[in-house]
Amino acid sequence: MSSIDKIEVDISVELGAANMPIHHLLRMGRGAVIELDTTENDPMRIHANGRLVAQGEVRVEDGQLRVIVIEKVARGA
User: Fold this and answer.
1) Considering the entire predicted model, what is its pTM?
2) 3 or 15, which is more confident?
3) How far apart are CA 45 and CA 57, in angstroms?
4) Of 27, 37, 58, 75, which residue is 20 to 30 A from 45 by alpha carbon distance?
């Protein structure tokens, strides 16, 4: 096994974000809707180990949800 196979990377995909007071969050019930700072046409943000590395979009292919990388983010960003 090569050493690169042992590297762990935490990948997360962010659809959008919202700021709200904790008391609003605690009062939310099942089915509540949280408005995000993005629209359905905005690219998603892809993070590796908490660092923004790319932007992407969601696609459904063969019944599976996929995240497609559409743009790599510059290293200094």
Assistant:
1) 0.71
2) 15
3) 9
4) 27
